[in-house]
Write a structure and sequence with these properties.
Layout: H1 4-14, H2 27-34, E1 39-43, H3 52-63, E2 69-73, H4 75-84, H5 89-98, H6 101-104, H7 116-122, E3 127-132, E4 142-144, H8 147-156, E5 164-165, E6 174-180, E7 185-189, E8 191-192, H9 194-201, E9 206-208, E10 211-213, E11 216-220, H10 222-225, H11 229-234, E12 239-244, H12 258-269, H13 274-279, E13 283-286, H14 299-315, H15 317-327, E14 350-358, H16 362-371, E15 379-380, H17 382-394, E16 401-408, E17 411-418, E18 422-433, E19 437-448, E20 454-462, E21 466-474, E22 483-497, E23 500-520, E24 524-542, H18 544-547, E25 554-566, E26 577-588, E27 593-597, E28 603-608, E29 610-623, E30 627-639, E31 650-651, E32 663-664, E33 673-674, E34 678-690, E35 694-706, E36 718-729, E37 732-741, E38 748-753
Parallel strand pairs: 1-2, 1-12, 2-6, 4-9, 12-13, 14-17, 31-32
Antiparallel strand pairs: 3-18, 5-8, 6-7, 6-11, 10-11, 14-15, 16-17, 18-19, 18-38, 19-20, 20-21, 21-22, 22-23, 23-24, 24-25, 25-26, 26-29, 27-28, 29-30, 30-34, 31-33, 34-35, 35-36, 36-37, 37-38
Length: 757
């Protein structure tokens, strides 16, 4: 999948179109000069199959066919609407191939706009649902709210987002069709807000929520008029060129799955007016999508569908050239470029003439004005526009947020429009692995209705490792978000020695943390605060040596600073970006030192507190389109005269913090093992993508460890290797790994199903 960063760059370059003053002549003026026929273009619906429209447009441009009016339905309304405001065939080809459609057609948050905490939640839970505040939920009626497609259309139509007359105010007159399910009537948009009209036209029933306008509930126009040639004729088209997307009829044996049944129902409904509209078409081109369906949004499918459209148009090349004579133009005629793209427009700042806040509480309006100092800002660019909408969703808890720029005088009016406020959000995640077996994690987010936004977050984990956590985060207008949290863990941990189970320890851990400095931005968080830990040991079973270790209930007070940076494009299988995490902690049990106590609880000595320094850094380098190299350095150093056993270094497993916070992964070591107080390691991973979601991973690692820093190179190097296969599914990575290390000296296999938590 193409990545969000690439999409954002393309949107910045092609997000706004402005007519060239030297070529502002209207279509009507050109017709008056040339006395030619008016040409209408009709683009039908068909979901992902509509990418073929782009290929047809490329050939029509190559042939020099002028387009005077456009009518479209569903995906045809999107391609046609963008073409009407200035996206030529070449720019549309680049755009549809660069977009991450797996993101666009869902309600997932854009990774580039999310905080790391929100990104982690998105890659932890397989199910999320929420309840919006308000008397009625305007986003009901479909599995997908359409948040991302709406925001994309809003950005792509920048400059044309206000209420407009599509015949008078667009470079090419345009109309699109939707269906009002209240009376099963056809609704033709000749005016209104262009992004909203296109969104209504493509609202596939049950899949996308309808668009509500007054008493109308609007869904996909294909339900009434999937090929609106009659609309183009009504707009004055003398000659109609139309594109449909029909393959061979399905047999009963082929209609088996849920999606194929829904698709067949839609196809049958789309027959309305089809034959009549084909009859009034002068040049009809039908693109056979072959084995691709309305949901084929993979990069391979899009490439193929665009090519199919181009090939179908080339088969009609002689007819296209012959059509020029009927239009009344010569073979050498080329249509005037009425609306050339200006790639630098979206990088420019535009003067602000004023602000309008829609559907927002006075507290929310005041919050945004003070946080962004809007009274002092006299211009806006794409970056500020994105920051405002992100803050409306994350800080003010609105389910949807929109920033529109409406031309006003010599500047723009900034319209900040909010949807329903989120009242509650519930998350659920489940996983299985060959060590812990099954585990379930539930999450609940409840924003409080206060003048200063406050969010509460509750987490419950059930399994071998049980956890209950509550967190309160204050969202003041300043840069920091103070956080207080309390966590209870009921741990049941197996500790291994050179691959053999040494002992099992069961203990409860209570942890309270106050983080007054909590800077939470797109790619990184910086946290500084105070933490209290209390360890209550319940039971320990194991070898005779381990039984000699006396474990007394104990508590620790630590001062901590954490920096977490992550610009990777994928949480589990990145191909670009970097990840860096570092933490320093000074650990005491009396705010200053570590008191060491006898069995009766009396203090026998006071020593300097323990310092903990840990870090891990990884970068991804892609070679070609499928192969990625990922070097990683990591380690943890414990400094001080005394290191409590429970805080000692541990290694093993697939990821950081698997059983205890300080656990570090090491390939070839599956279970948790204690190691020396000074530990540094390097890992090199080779990642090969096969197909779209299959990954083969090769990992090699080496580490040095010792009790003292000066002895790090005195001990033999710890080595390990691993090979793994994973399928990146909607419920998380599914796969297995097998590894070997010179510490365990036997193969170790690990099976994983689901997200990590």
């Amino acid at each position: 999948m193409k990545k969000i960063l690439l999409i954002f760059t393309i949107l910045l370059m092609a997000g706004k179109v402005i007519a060239n003053p030297d070529s502002i002549a209207t279509v009507a003026n050109e017709q008056a000069r040339t006395k030619r026929a008016k040409v209408g273009l009709v683009l039908c619906g068909g979901g992902a199959k509509g990418m073929a429209h782009v290929g047809v447009l490329k050939v029509l441009e190559r042939a020099g066919i002028p387009i005077d009016v456009i009518a479209g339905t569903s995906i045809g309304s999107i391609v046609g609407g963008l073409y009407a405001i200035g996206y030529n065939a070449h720019s549309l080809d680049s755009l549809v191939k660069a977009l991450d459609w797996g993101y666009v057609i869902t309600d997932r948050e854009n990774l580039t706009n999310q905080s790391l905490i929100d990104r982690k939640k998105q890659n932890t839970y397989i199910f999320t649902t929420g309840k919006a505040a308000g008397k009625r939920n305007m986003n009901a009626g479909g599995f997908i709210k359409g948040k991302n497609i709406s925001e994309l259309l809003q950005r792509l139509c920048s400059g044309y987002t206000d209420s407009l007359n599509f015949s008078r105010d667009l470079p090419i007159p345009f109309a699109c069709v939707a269906t009002n399910i209240m009376d099963n009537s056809e609704v033709v948009f000749h005016s209104g807000r262009l992004p909203q009209a296109m969104r209504a036209s493509m609202a596939i029933p049950a899949a996308f929520t309808p668009v509500r306008m007054g008493d109308m509930v609007l869904v996909d126009g294909g339900m009434r008029n999937n090929y609106p040639a009659d609309v183009a004729r009504a707009m004055g088209a003398d000659i109609v060129i139309g594109v449909t997307l029909s393959g061979k009829a399905k047999t009963a044996e082929e209609v088996k799955s849920t999606m194929s049944v829904i698709g067949q129902i839609i196809d049958m409904n789309c027959v309305n007016k089809y034959n009549e509209n084909i009859a009034i078409t002068d040049l009809h081109m039908n693109v056979d999508p072959k084995d691709y369906s309305t949901a084929s949004f993979s990069s391979e499918a899009i490439d193929s569908l665009v090519r199919y459209g181009e090939e179908e148009a080339m088969r009609h090349w002689d007819e296209i050239i012959a059509l020029k004579k009927r239009i009344g133009i010569s073979n050498s005629f080329r249509p005037r470029k009425l609306h050339p793209l200006r790639p630098n427009v979206m990088t420019d700042r535009q003067r602000i003439s004023g602000y309008t806040f829609e559907n927002m509480t006075p507290q929310g309006e005041s919050f945004l004005r003070q946080k962004f100092h809007l009274q002092k800002i006299d211009s806006i660019d794409a970056e500020l526009e994105q920051q405002l909408t992100t803050s409306m969703r994350i800080d003010l808890f609105y389910n949807t947020a929109e920033c529109r720029l409406i031309p006003e005088g010599d500047g723009v009016r900034v319209v900040l429009s909010a949807g329903n406020r989120r009242a509650m959000q519930f998350h659920a995640g489940v996983r299985f692995d060959s060590e812990e077996n099954a585990a379930l994690q539930l999450g609940l987010d409840i924003p409080l209705k206060t003048a200063i936004p406050i969010n509460t977050d509750f987490t419950l984990r059930l399994g071998k490792l049980m956890l209950a956590r509550g967190e309160i985060t204050v969202h003041p207008r300043s840069f920091t978000r103070p956080t207080f949290s309390f966590t209870f863990r009921r741990n049941d941990v197996d500790v291994y020695l050179d691959g053999d189970l040494d002992y099992n320890i069961r203990y409860n851990q209570s942890q309270a943390e106050f983080v007054p400095i909590n800077l939470d931005l797109r790619h990184f968080t910086l946290q500084m605060g105070l933490r209290w830990d209390y360890m209550h040991y319940r039971n320990k079973l194991g070898s005779e040596i381990s039984k000699q270790i006396s474990l007394k209930n104990e508590h620790f007070i630590s001062y901590r600073a954490r920096l977490d940076y992550n610009s990777e494009d994928n949480w589990y299988f990145p191909t670009r970006g970097a990840r860096f995490k570092a933490e320093y902690a000074y650990v005491t049990n009396n705010f200053a030192k570590l008191n060491q106590r006898a069995d009766d609880g009396t203090v026998v000595s006071k020593v300097t507190g323990m310092s903990e320094v840990s870090a891990n850094w990884r970068m991804s380098f892609t070679i070609g389109s499928r192969f990625t190299i990922q070097p990683m350095l990591y380690g943890r150093l414990l400094l001080g005269p005394s290191v409590p056993t429970v805080l000692g270094n541990t290694i093993g497993g697939e990821w950081f913090g698997r059983y205890v916070d300080q656990q570090m992964p090491f390939v070839g070591i599956g279970n948790m093992e204690y190691t020396d107080h000074q530990f540094v390691a390097a890992q090199l991973q080779a990642q090969q993508r096969i197909g779209r979601n299959n990954y083969v991973l090769f990992r090699m690692a080496g580490a040095q460890h010792a009790d003292k820093m000066k002895q790090l190179l005195d001990y033999s190097t710890l080595l390990g290797g691993q090979i793994a296969y994973f399928y990146n599914s909607i419920i998380g990575p599914i796969g297995a790994s097998i590894g070997y290390s010179n510490r365990i000296k036997s193969p170790y296999m690990f099976l994983n199903i689901g997200y990590q938590f």
